[in-house]
Amino acid sequence: MMSLCTNSILPIIPNLPVTHFNTKTPILTPFSPQNPHSFNQSLNLFNQRLKIKQTPLTIITSSMASTAQSEEKPFSVLFVCLGNICRSPAAEGVFTNLVQKRNLSSKFVIDSAGTINYHEGGPADSRMRAASKRRGIEITSISRPIRPSDFKEFDLILAMDRQNKEDILAALERWSFTETLPADAHKKVQLMCSYCKKHDETEVPDPYYGGAQGFEKVLDLLEDACESLLESIVDKSSS
Ligand code: 4NP
To answer: What is the pLDDT of residue 71?
Structure first.
């Protein structure tokens, strides 16, 4: 089966002798998204003239495709910190690991970003990657700054600390002047530690200028928050 998603398809059949159609030759009607069969109809007319047999194509219009997708739209989570090299890539790794262990990968889109672009294109901090690896978690993400489309594409945006949350909301306000963003996008922005059950901390502290224990603390908090985050999403989707 072949799928086509285009607005301007006409049959292209190479190496055929040139045929001179008379004025009664039906004119090929171009493919129209309003009539997804128009391509097959025009292809059949064309092939009748040339005595070619061809299996009809199955055409998926963009409206059909979006209906199919919306039925199984994955839940999307974006983790955000300052540089996107320590806390948020670790959160992405911890949450991805939990989702994989529960065989739920197809149900989620998971990503991370920073509120600054200073480390854009670079890998996560080697200390964060080493600490995560000791707990069986691979961090593979590449740093990128948060962008306007994140407010459309993600269901939940989790900030590691209050300053991150303020910066995310300030960016949303700025971008709202020039971009069409969801009116309730600010509701998607929450603090990561609001999901913690075993810890009293309200923020994931920045480990960048500290010692090794700072990276362990980040992972303790993230493991706690990610476990209850996953539970809350699974509970909501089954209720
Ligand atoms: P993150 O940590 O926000 O958890 O990725 C930091 C990374 C870089 C810097 C600060 C914090 N920095 O100042 O470059």
So the answer is: 63
Tell me if 87 CB under 6 Å of ligand 1. Answer: yes
**What is the number of H-type helices and E-type strands within the chain?**
7, 4
pTM (2 d.p.): 0.73
196 catalytic, yes or no? Answer: no
Is 144 within the bounds of a domain? yes
DSSP designation for 147 = -
87 an active-site residue? yes
Number of domains in the chain: 1
Q: Does residue 101 sit within a domain?
A: yes
User: Residues 111, 161, 167, 206: which is the catalytic one?
Assistant: 206
**Residue among 139, 146, 145 at smallest CA distance from 123:** 139
> The CATH number of the domain where 147 resides is what?
3.40.50.2300
Q: Is residue 159 part of a domain?
A: yes
pLDDT digit string (tens) for 98-153?
999 999 999 999 999 999 999 999 999 999 999 999 999 999 999 999 999 999 99
Cα of 227 vs centre of ligand 1, distance in Å, is 24
Query: How far does Cα 206 stand from its chain's mean position?
Result: 26
